[in-house]
TrEMBL record:
<protein>
    <recommendedName>
        <fullName>Glycosyltransferase 61 catalytic domain-containing protein</fullName>
    </recommendedName>
</protein>
<keyword id="KW-0325">Glycoprotein</keyword>
<keyword id="KW-1133">Transmembrane helix</keyword>
<dbReference type="Pfam" id="PF04577">
    <property type="entry name" value="Glyco_transf_61"/>
</dbReference>
<dbReference type="GO" id="GO:0000139">
    <property type="term" value="C:Golgi membrane"/>
</dbReference>
<feature type="transmembrane region" description="Helical">
    <location>
        <begin position="20"/>
        <end position="39"/>
    </location>
</feature>
<feature type="domain" description="Glycosyltransferase 61 catalytic">
    <location>
        <begin position="302"/>
        <end position="386"/>
    </location>
</feature>
<dbReference type="InterPro" id="IPR007657">
    <property type="entry name" value="Glycosyltransferase_61"/>
</dbReference>
<dbReference type="InterPro" id="IPR049625">
    <property type="entry name" value="Glyco_transf_61_cat"/>
</dbReference>
<keyword id="KW-0328">Glycosyltransferase</keyword>
<keyword id="KW-0812">Transmembrane</keyword>
<keyword id="KW-0472">Membrane</keyword>
<dbReference type="GO" id="GO:0016763">
    <property type="term" value="F:pentosyltransferase activity"/>
</dbReference>
<keyword id="KW-0808">Transferase</keyword>
Protein backbone atom coordinates (compact mmCIF):
# COMPACT_ATOMS: atom_id res chain seq x y z
CA UNK A 1 0.00 0.00 0.00
CA UNK A 2 2.88 2.37 0.75
CA UNK A 3 4.44 1.81 -2.70
CA UNK A 4 1.13 2.50 -4.44
CA UNK A 5 0.85 5.74 -2.47
CA UNK A 6 4.35 6.81 -3.56
CA UNK A 7 3.64 6.03 -7.20
CA UNK A 8 0.46 8.12 -7.00
CA UNK A 9 2.34 11.10 -5.59
CA UNK A 10 4.94 11.08 -8.34
CA UNK A 11 2.76 10.70 -11.41
CA UNK A 12 4.02 13.18 -14.00
CA UNK A 13 3.68 14.07 -17.64
CA UNK A 14 0.56 13.71 -19.76
CA UNK A 15 -0.64 10.74 -17.73
CA UNK A 16 -0.39 12.80 -14.52
CA UNK A 17 -2.27 15.78 -15.99
CA UNK A 18 -5.05 13.53 -17.22
CA UNK A 19 -5.33 11.88 -13.81
CA UNK A 20 -5.55 15.15 -11.88
CA UNK A 21 -8.07 16.58 -14.35
CA UNK A 22 -10.21 13.49 -13.90
CA UNK A 23 -9.93 13.78 -10.12
CA UNK A 24 -10.94 17.48 -10.17
CA UNK A 25 -13.98 16.85 -12.38
CA UNK A 26 -15.06 13.99 -10.11
CA UNK A 27 -14.96 16.23 -7.04
CA UNK A 28 -16.97 18.96 -8.81
CA UNK A 29 -19.58 16.42 -9.87
CA UNK A 30 -19.93 15.11 -6.32
CA UNK A 31 -20.39 18.65 -5.06
CA UNK A 32 -23.33 19.29 -7.39
CA UNK A 33 -24.89 15.95 -6.48
CA UNK A 34 -24.71 16.64 -2.74
CA UNK A 35 -25.59 20.34 -2.89
CA UNK A 36 -29.42 19.95 -2.78
CA UNK A 37 -29.19 17.74 0.29
CA UNK A 38 -27.04 20.25 2.12
CA UNK A 39 -29.88 22.76 1.96
CA UNK A 40 -32.85 20.51 2.80
CA UNK A 41 -31.82 19.30 6.24
CA UNK A 42 -34.35 20.90 8.55
CA UNK A 43 -32.34 20.24 11.69
CA UNK A 44 -29.75 22.78 10.60
CA UNK A 45 -30.57 26.19 11.97
CA UNK A 46 -30.65 28.99 9.41
CA UNK A 47 -32.48 31.57 11.48
CA UNK A 48 -31.27 34.30 13.68
CA UNK A 49 -30.55 32.67 17.04
CA UNK A 50 -31.97 34.78 19.82
CA UNK A 51 -31.48 34.49 23.53
CA UNK A 52 -29.28 34.43 26.57
CA UNK A 53 -27.19 31.36 25.88
CA UNK A 54 -26.75 31.72 22.13
CA UNK A 55 -26.98 35.25 20.86
CA UNK A 56 -24.98 34.75 17.68
CA UNK A 57 -26.01 34.09 14.12
CA UNK A 58 -26.78 30.58 12.93
CA UNK A 59 -26.37 30.00 9.22
CA UNK A 60 -26.21 32.87 6.76
CA UNK A 61 -29.26 34.87 7.82
CA UNK A 62 -28.50 38.54 8.45
CA UNK A 63 -29.14 39.36 12.10
CA UNK A 64 -30.65 42.69 11.08
CA UNK A 65 -33.07 41.15 8.58
CA UNK A 66 -36.70 40.70 9.65
CA UNK A 67 -37.51 37.17 10.69
CA UNK A 68 -38.06 34.86 7.68
CA UNK A 69 -37.33 37.62 5.15
CA UNK A 70 -34.50 35.67 3.53
CA UNK A 71 -36.20 32.26 3.50
CA UNK A 72 -36.76 31.00 -0.04
CA UNK A 73 -40.22 30.23 -1.41
CA UNK A 74 -41.55 26.72 -0.86
CA UNK A 75 -39.41 26.11 2.22
CA UNK A 76 -39.91 25.36 5.89
CA UNK A 77 -37.07 26.59 8.09
CA UNK A 78 -36.93 25.88 11.81
CA UNK A 79 -34.58 27.28 14.43
CA UNK A 80 -34.39 24.96 17.43
CA UNK A 81 -31.14 26.32 18.82
CA UNK A 82 -32.59 28.40 21.64
CA UNK A 83 -33.34 26.89 25.03
CA UNK A 84 -36.46 29.04 25.51
CA UNK A 85 -38.41 28.42 22.32
CA UNK A 86 -38.48 26.99 18.81
CA UNK A 87 -39.58 29.00 15.81
CA UNK A 88 -40.39 27.96 12.23
CA UNK A 89 -40.98 29.91 9.02
CA UNK A 90 -42.97 28.86 5.96
CA UNK A 91 -43.23 30.56 2.57
CA UNK A 92 -45.34 29.64 -0.43
CA UNK A 93 -48.77 28.01 -0.82
CA UNK A 94 -49.70 27.68 2.87
CA UNK A 95 -52.99 26.17 4.07
CA UNK A 96 -54.32 25.49 7.54
CA UNK A 97 -56.10 22.29 8.58
CA UNK A 98 -57.64 22.74 12.01
CA UNK A 99 -58.93 19.21 12.67
CA UNK A 100 -55.42 17.77 12.44
CA UNK A 101 -53.68 20.83 13.94
CA UNK A 102 -51.60 21.06 10.77
CA UNK A 103 -50.28 23.60 8.33
CA UNK A 104 -49.53 22.40 4.81
CA UNK A 105 -47.06 24.00 2.43
CA UNK A 106 -47.52 23.00 -1.22
CA UNK A 107 -44.86 23.24 -3.88
CA UNK A 108 -46.02 25.39 -6.77
CA UNK A 109 -45.84 24.00 -10.30
CA UNK A 110 -46.42 27.36 -11.90
CA UNK A 111 -43.27 28.82 -13.38
CA UNK A 112 -44.49 32.35 -12.70
CA UNK A 113 -44.82 31.60 -8.99
CA UNK A 114 -48.63 32.09 -9.03
CA UNK A 115 -50.35 30.03 -6.37
CA UNK A 116 -53.48 28.22 -7.52
CA UNK A 117 -55.79 28.44 -4.53
CA UNK A 118 -58.36 26.00 -5.98
CA UNK A 119 -55.93 23.11 -6.31
CA UNK A 120 -54.00 20.96 -3.86
CA UNK A 121 -56.88 20.80 -1.41
CA UNK A 122 -55.94 19.86 2.16
CA UNK A 123 -57.87 16.77 3.20
CA UNK A 124 -57.68 13.92 5.68
CA UNK A 125 -55.80 10.88 4.50
CA UNK A 126 -53.40 12.55 2.11
CA UNK A 127 -50.68 10.21 0.95
CA UNK A 128 -47.67 10.55 3.23
CA UNK A 129 -45.45 9.59 0.31
CA UNK A 130 -46.04 13.10 -1.02
CA UNK A 131 -44.40 14.64 2.04
CA UNK A 132 -41.20 16.53 1.37
CA UNK A 133 -40.65 17.72 4.93
CA UNK A 134 -42.44 17.30 8.26
CA UNK A 135 -41.75 19.46 11.30
CA UNK A 136 -43.50 19.61 14.67
CA UNK A 137 -43.58 22.58 17.00
CA UNK A 138 -45.19 23.62 20.26
CA UNK A 139 -45.38 27.40 19.83
CA UNK A 140 -44.90 28.39 23.47
CA UNK A 141 -41.88 30.10 24.99
CA UNK A 142 -41.03 27.80 27.90
CA UNK A 143 -39.42 25.02 25.91
CA UNK A 144 -37.16 23.92 28.77
CA UNK A 145 -40.07 23.20 31.14
CA UNK A 146 -41.18 19.73 30.08
CA UNK A 147 -44.10 19.56 32.49
CA UNK A 148 -45.80 22.69 31.20
CA UNK A 149 -44.91 21.99 27.56
CA UNK A 150 -46.73 18.67 27.87
CA UNK A 151 -49.94 20.67 28.26
CA UNK A 152 -49.37 22.75 25.10
CA UNK A 153 -50.90 21.72 21.77
CA UNK A 154 -48.49 20.60 19.05
CA UNK A 155 -48.63 21.88 15.50
CA UNK A 156 -47.60 19.83 12.44
CA UNK A 157 -45.87 21.69 9.60
CA UNK A 158 -45.88 19.59 6.43
CA UNK A 159 -44.38 20.37 3.05
CA UNK A 160 -45.99 18.43 0.16
CA UNK A 161 -45.79 18.06 -3.58
CA UNK A 162 -48.56 19.94 -5.36
CA UNK A 163 -51.11 17.62 -6.97
CA UNK A 164 -52.94 18.26 -10.19
CA UNK A 165 -56.71 18.28 -10.20
CA UNK A 166 -59.25 20.60 -8.70
CA UNK A 167 -60.47 20.37 -5.11
CA UNK A 168 -62.43 22.83 -3.03
CA UNK A 169 -60.93 26.33 -2.76
CA UNK A 170 -59.48 28.04 0.27
CA UNK A 171 -62.22 29.34 2.50
CA UNK A 172 -60.25 32.46 3.42
CA UNK A 173 -57.34 33.91 1.45
CA UNK A 174 -55.10 36.32 3.38
CA UNK A 175 -52.76 38.81 1.75
CA UNK A 176 -50.73 39.27 4.94
CA UNK A 177 -48.54 36.82 6.90
CA UNK A 178 -49.69 34.68 9.83
CA UNK A 179 -48.08 34.31 13.25
CA UNK A 180 -49.15 31.19 15.15
CA UNK A 181 -48.62 30.89 18.90
CA UNK A 182 -50.11 29.26 22.00
CA UNK A 183 -51.89 30.80 24.97
CA UNK A 184 -51.63 27.60 26.97
CA UNK A 185 -49.07 26.84 29.64
CA UNK A 186 -48.97 29.39 32.44
CA UNK A 187 -51.36 31.79 30.72
CA UNK A 188 -53.56 33.42 33.35
CA UNK A 189 -50.65 34.58 35.50
CA UNK A 190 -49.99 38.20 34.55
CA UNK A 191 -46.21 37.75 34.63
CA UNK A 192 -46.39 34.85 32.18
CA UNK A 193 -49.04 36.60 30.09
CA UNK A 194 -46.54 39.35 29.36
CA UNK A 195 -43.21 37.53 29.58
CA UNK A 196 -44.21 34.37 27.68
CA UNK A 197 -46.87 35.84 25.42
CA UNK A 198 -47.43 39.54 24.82
CA UNK A 199 -43.79 40.67 24.70
CA UNK A 200 -42.57 37.76 22.51
CA UNK A 201 -45.54 38.46 20.23
CA UNK A 202 -44.39 42.08 19.96
CA UNK A 203 -40.81 40.99 19.27
CA UNK A 204 -41.91 38.53 16.57
CA UNK A 205 -44.53 40.63 14.80
CA UNK A 206 -43.66 44.31 15.24
CA UNK A 207 -41.85 44.53 11.89
CA UNK A 208 -45.10 43.70 10.08
CA UNK A 209 -46.57 47.05 11.20
CA UNK A 210 -49.92 45.45 12.10
CA UNK A 211 -50.25 43.82 8.67
CA UNK A 212 -50.37 40.33 10.16
CA UNK A 213 -52.93 37.74 11.27
CA UNK A 214 -52.61 36.05 14.67
CA UNK A 215 -53.68 32.42 14.95
CA UNK A 216 -53.85 30.93 18.44
CA UNK A 217 -53.51 27.36 19.69
CA UNK A 218 -54.89 26.60 23.18
CA UNK A 219 -57.24 29.52 22.53
CA UNK A 220 -58.87 31.35 25.46
CA UNK A 221 -61.50 33.96 24.62
CA UNK A 222 -60.97 35.74 27.95
CA UNK A 223 -57.30 36.27 27.05
CA UNK A 224 -58.22 37.88 23.74
CA UNK A 225 -60.70 40.15 25.50
CA UNK A 226 -58.36 41.07 28.35
CA UNK A 227 -55.45 41.98 26.10
CA UNK A 228 -57.54 43.18 23.17
CA UNK A 229 -56.34 46.79 23.45
CA UNK A 230 -52.73 45.64 23.04
CA UNK A 231 -53.46 43.04 20.37
CA UNK A 232 -55.31 45.60 18.24
CA UNK A 233 -52.10 47.65 18.14
CA UNK A 234 -50.11 44.65 16.94
CA UNK A 235 -52.55 43.46 14.27
CA UNK A 236 -55.27 45.09 12.17
CA UNK A 237 -56.99 41.74 11.62
CA UNK A 238 -59.35 39.56 13.66
CA UNK A 239 -57.66 36.90 15.77
CA UNK A 240 -58.28 33.30 14.71
CA UNK A 241 -58.82 30.31 16.97
CA UNK A 242 -56.69 27.77 15.09
CA UNK A 243 -58.58 24.66 16.25
CA UNK A 244 -62.00 26.24 16.73
CA UNK A 245 -62.15 27.78 13.25
CA UNK A 246 -62.53 24.86 10.82
CA UNK A 247 -62.16 26.98 7.70
CA UNK A 248 -59.10 26.56 5.51
CA UNK A 249 -57.03 29.74 5.79
CA UNK A 250 -54.45 30.37 3.08
CA UNK A 251 -51.31 32.46 3.36
CA UNK A 252 -48.08 33.04 1.47
CA UNK A 253 -46.01 33.43 4.65
CA UNK A 254 -46.34 32.13 8.20
CA UNK A 255 -44.32 32.05 11.41
CA UNK A 256 -45.01 29.35 14.00
CA UNK A 257 -43.64 30.11 17.45
CA UNK A 258 -42.39 33.30 19.06
CA UNK A 259 -39.03 34.89 19.67
CA UNK A 260 -38.18 35.73 23.27
CA UNK A 261 -35.15 37.71 24.43
CA UNK A 262 -35.04 37.59 28.22
CA UNK A 263 -37.25 38.23 31.24
CA UNK A 264 -39.66 41.08 30.40
CA UNK A 265 -37.11 42.44 27.93
CA UNK A 266 -36.94 43.74 24.37
CA UNK A 267 -33.29 43.70 23.26
CA UNK A 268 -32.60 46.03 20.33
CA UNK A 269 -29.45 44.11 19.40
CA UNK A 270 -31.32 40.81 19.15
CA UNK A 271 -34.22 42.52 17.41
CA UNK A 272 -31.91 43.93 14.76
CA UNK A 273 -33.37 47.42 15.11
CA UNK A 274 -33.27 50.38 17.46
CA UNK A 275 -36.50 49.34 19.20
CA UNK A 276 -36.33 48.36 22.87
CA UNK A 277 -38.45 48.01 26.00
CA UNK A 278 -39.34 51.72 25.92
CA UNK A 279 -40.88 51.27 22.46
CA UNK A 280 -42.96 48.41 23.83
CA UNK A 281 -44.15 50.63 26.65
CA UNK A 282 -45.01 53.37 24.16
CA UNK A 283 -47.22 50.84 22.41
CA UNK A 284 -48.99 50.23 25.73
CA UNK A 285 -49.52 53.99 26.01
CA UNK A 286 -51.18 54.09 22.60
CA UNK A 287 -53.25 51.03 23.41
CA UNK A 288 -54.68 52.29 26.69
CA UNK A 289 -54.81 56.05 26.26
CA UNK A 290 -58.31 56.15 24.68
CA UNK A 291 -59.74 54.24 27.64
CA UNK A 292 -57.75 56.33 30.14
CA UNK A 293 -59.25 59.49 28.62
CA UNK A 294 -62.72 58.10 29.17
CA UNK A 295 -61.84 57.20 32.77
CA UNK A 296 -60.75 60.78 33.34
CA UNK A 297 -64.00 62.02 31.85
CA UNK A 298 -65.90 59.68 34.17
CA UNK A 299 -64.51 61.37 37.26
CA UNK A 300 -60.79 60.62 37.48
CA UNK A 301 -59.78 64.13 36.38
CA UNK A 302 -59.62 65.52 39.91
CA UNK A 303 -57.33 62.71 41.02
CA UNK A 304 -54.99 63.28 38.10
CA UNK A 305 -54.80 67.02 38.76
CA UNK A 306 -54.12 66.34 42.44
CA UNK A 307 -50.82 64.73 41.50
CA UNK A 308 -49.39 68.16 40.70
CA UNK A 309 -49.54 68.99 44.40
CA UNK A 310 -48.59 65.64 45.93
CA UNK A 311 -46.53 62.78 44.55
CA UNK A 312 -48.60 59.65 44.08
CA UNK A 313 -47.52 56.38 45.67
CA UNK A 314 -49.30 53.17 44.67
CA UNK A 315 -49.11 50.08 46.86
CA UNK A 316 -49.73 46.81 45.01
CA UNK A 317 -51.55 44.97 47.76
CA UNK A 318 -51.55 41.20 48.25
CA UNK A 319 -53.75 38.78 50.15
CA UNK A 320 -52.48 35.47 51.50
CA UNK A 321 -48.88 34.56 50.76
CA UNK A 322 -46.35 37.41 50.90
CA UNK A 323 -48.99 39.84 52.14
CA UNK A 324 -47.87 42.84 54.21
CA UNK A 325 -49.56 42.32 57.56
CA UNK A 326 -49.05 45.92 58.69
CA UNK A 327 -49.95 47.45 55.33
CA UNK A 328 -52.17 50.04 57.01
CA UNK A 329 -49.14 51.36 58.88
CA UNK A 330 -47.15 51.49 55.64
CA UNK A 331 -49.94 53.63 54.20
CA UNK A 332 -49.88 55.94 57.22
CA UNK A 333 -46.10 56.29 57.13
CA UNK A 334 -46.17 57.11 53.41
CA UNK A 335 -48.81 59.78 53.96
CA UNK A 336 -46.78 61.31 56.79
CA UNK A 337 -43.82 61.67 54.43
CA UNK A 338 -46.00 63.54 51.94
CA UNK A 339 -47.35 60.99 49.47
CA UNK A 340 -50.88 60.66 48.23
CA UNK A 341 -51.34 56.91 48.69
CA UNK A 342 -53.47 54.63 46.56
CA UNK A 343 -53.81 50.94 47.50
CA UNK A 344 -54.39 48.80 44.43
CA UNK A 345 -55.36 45.13 44.56
CA UNK A 346 -55.12 43.78 41.00
CA UNK A 347 -57.39 40.80 40.37
CA UNK A 348 -57.61 38.60 37.31
CA UNK A 349 -60.89 40.31 36.43
CA UNK A 350 -59.62 43.87 36.96
CA UNK A 351 -59.73 45.92 33.77
CA UNK A 352 -56.15 46.43 32.64
CA UNK A 353 -56.85 49.98 31.54
CA UNK A 354 -57.72 50.91 35.13
CA UNK A 355 -54.49 49.38 36.42
CA UNK A 356 -52.62 51.15 33.65
CA UNK A 357 -54.18 54.52 34.50
CA UNK A 358 -53.26 54.13 38.16
CA UNK A 359 -49.63 53.14 37.60
CA UNK A 360 -49.08 55.41 34.61
CA UNK A 361 -49.98 58.42 36.78
CA UNK A 362 -47.90 57.24 39.76
CA UNK A 363 -44.57 58.59 40.93
CA UNK A 364 -43.68 55.64 43.15
CA UNK A 365 -44.93 52.05 43.19
CA UNK A 366 -44.37 49.71 46.14
CA UNK A 367 -44.95 45.98 45.88
CA UNK A 368 -43.85 42.64 47.26
CA UNK A 369 -42.07 40.28 44.87
CA UNK A 370 -44.69 38.45 42.84
CA UNK A 371 -46.53 38.38 39.52
CA UNK A 372 -48.38 41.66 40.16
CA UNK A 373 -45.06 43.53 39.88
CA UNK A 374 -45.25 42.82 36.14
CA UNK A 375 -47.43 45.92 36.06
CA UNK A 376 -44.25 48.01 36.41
CA UNK A 377 -44.43 47.98 32.61
CA UNK A 378 -47.25 50.51 33.01
CA UNK A 379 -45.05 53.00 34.89
CA UNK A 380 -43.45 55.99 33.23
CA UNK A 381 -39.66 55.98 32.83
CA UNK A 382 -38.11 58.07 35.59
CA UNK A 383 -40.58 56.99 38.27
CA UNK A 384 -39.55 54.82 41.23
CA UNK A 385 -40.21 51.13 41.82
CA UNK A 386 -39.65 49.77 45.33
CA UNK A 387 -39.67 45.98 45.37
CA UNK A 388 -40.00 44.36 48.79
CA UNK A 389 -37.92 41.18 48.65
CA UNK A 390 -39.02 38.35 50.98
CA UNK A 391 -36.53 35.80 52.29
CA UNK A 392 -35.40 33.31 49.66
CA UNK A 393 -36.38 35.38 46.62
CA UNK A 394 -33.24 37.48 46.00
CA UNK A 395 -32.32 36.00 42.63
CA UNK A 396 -35.85 35.95 41.24
CA UNK A 397 -36.53 39.50 42.44
CA UNK A 398 -33.51 40.88 40.61
CA UNK A 399 -33.85 38.73 37.48
CA UNK A 400 -37.58 39.06 36.88
CA UNK A 401 -38.22 42.63 38.02
CA UNK A 402 -35.13 44.54 39.17
CA UNK A 403 -33.08 44.33 36.00
CA UNK A 404 -36.05 44.74 33.60
CA UNK A 405 -37.26 47.79 35.57
CA UNK A 406 -33.89 49.50 35.15
CA UNK A 407 -33.94 48.72 31.43
CA UNK A 408 -37.28 50.49 31.22
CA UNK A 409 -35.70 53.56 32.79
CA UNK A 410 -37.21 53.28 36.25
CA UNK A 411 -35.36 54.12 39.44
CA UNK A 412 -35.29 50.82 41.23
CA UNK A 413 -34.93 50.20 44.97
CA UNK A 414 -34.87 46.64 46.25
CA UNK A 415 -35.80 46.33 49.92
CA UNK A 416 -34.52 43.02 51.32
CA UNK A 417 -36.37 42.17 54.49
CA UNK A 418 -34.59 40.96 57.61
CA UNK A 419 -35.46 37.67 59.27
CA UNK A 420 -37.57 39.37 61.94
CA UNK A 421 -39.79 40.91 59.25
CA UNK A 422 -40.83 37.47 58.00
CA UNK A 423 -43.50 35.19 59.47
CA UNK A 424 -40.93 32.40 59.10
CA UNK A 425 -39.11 33.91 62.07
CA UNK A 426 -41.88 32.60 64.33
CA UNK A 427 -41.81 29.14 62.77
CA UNK A 428 -38.10 28.31 62.71
CA UNK A 429 -35.19 28.58 65.12
CA UNK A 430 -33.13 31.72 64.54
CA UNK A 431 -30.14 29.59 63.47
CA UNK A 432 -32.16 27.46 61.05
CA UNK A 433 -30.91 27.63 57.42
CA UNK A 434 -34.41 28.77 56.41
CA UNK A 435 -33.58 32.08 58.10
CA UNK A 436 -29.80 32.20 58.15
CA UNK A 437 -28.99 30.79 54.73
CA UNK A 438 -31.99 30.72 52.35
CA UNK A 439 -29.78 30.08 49.32
CA UNK A 440 -28.80 26.69 50.75
CA UNK A 441 -32.44 25.67 50.33
CA UNK A 442 -33.39 27.51 47.16
CA UNK A 443 -30.48 25.93 45.27
CA UNK A 444 -32.09 22.54 45.91
CA UNK A 445 -34.84 23.40 43.46
CA UNK A 446 -37.97 25.35 42.69
CA UNK A 447 -40.20 23.23 44.93
CA UNK A 448 -38.26 24.32 48.02
CA UNK A 449 -38.49 27.98 47.05
CA UNK A 450 -42.17 27.71 46.25
CA UNK A 451 -43.24 25.82 49.35
CA UNK A 452 -41.17 27.65 51.99
CA UNK A 453 -40.63 31.16 50.70
CA UNK A 454 -43.47 31.86 48.25
CA UNK A 455 -46.44 30.06 49.78
CA UNK A 456 -45.74 30.06 53.53
CA UNK A 457 -44.39 33.55 54.13
CA UNK A 458 -46.06 36.82 55.12
CA UNK A 459 -44.34 40.08 56.02
CA UNK A 460 -44.45 42.61 58.84
CA UNK A 461 -42.21 45.47 57.76
CA UNK A 462 -39.88 47.31 60.11
CA UNK A 463 -41.44 50.75 59.59
CA UNK A 464 -38.41 52.71 60.79
CA UNK A 465 -36.19 50.83 58.36
CA UNK A 466 -38.63 50.93 55.44
CA UNK A 467 -39.36 54.63 56.01
CA UNK A 468 -35.82 55.46 54.87
CA UNK A 469 -36.57 53.96 51.45
CA UNK A 470 -39.79 55.92 51.19
CA UNK A 471 -37.97 59.15 52.04
CA UNK A 472 -35.38 58.45 49.36
CA UNK A 473 -38.12 57.91 46.80
CA UNK A 474 -39.90 61.10 47.90
CA UNK A 475 -36.69 63.08 47.59
CA UNK A 476 -36.09 61.78 44.11
CA UNK A 477 -39.53 62.54 42.67
CA UNK A 478 -39.87 65.96 44.33
CA UNK A 479 -36.29 67.13 44.64
CA UNK A 480 -37.05 67.80 48.30
CA UNK A 481 -35.10 65.89 50.93
CA UNK A 482 -36.46 66.18 54.48
CA UNK A 483 -33.67 67.57 56.67
CA UNK A 484 -33.94 64.70 59.14
CA UNK A 485 -33.27 62.06 56.45
CA UNK A 486 -31.23 63.42 53.57
CA UNK A 487 -30.26 60.32 51.58
CA UNK A 488 -29.09 59.95 48.02
CA UNK A 489 -31.26 57.75 45.78
CA UNK A 490 -29.59 55.29 43.48
CA UNK A 491 -30.30 52.14 41.50
CA UNK A 492 -29.22 49.92 44.35
CA UNK A 493 -30.66 47.21 46.51
CA UNK A 494 -31.02 48.32 50.09
CA UNK A 495 -29.83 45.86 52.69
Amino acid sequence: MKRQGLLFLFITGEQGLSFYLYLFLSLVSCTFILLPYLFTISSSSHLYSFGVQNEGLVGNIDAKSPLCSTISNGRIWCDRSHFRSDICCLKGDIRTHSSSASIFLYSSKNSNGFINYVSSMVYDGEDQDDELQHERIKPYTRKWETSVMNTVDELDLISKRSKSGVHHPCDVVHNVPAVIFSTGGYTGNVYHDFNDGIMPLYITSQHFNRKVVFMILDYHNWWVIKYGDILSHLSDHPIIDFIGDDRTHCFTEAIAGLRIHDELTVDSLLLGSNKNIVDFRNLLDRAYWPRIKSLIQEGERDKVQYQVRKPKLVILSRNGSRAIINENMVVKTSEEIGFQVHVLKPERTTELAKIYESLNSSDVVVGVHGAALTHFLFMQPGSVLIQIIPLGTDWAAETYYGEPARKLGLKYIGYKIKGRESSLFDEYDKDDPVLRNPSSLTKKGWEYTKKIYLEDQTLRLDLARFRKRLVRAYGYVTGIHPSHCNFHLGNITQM
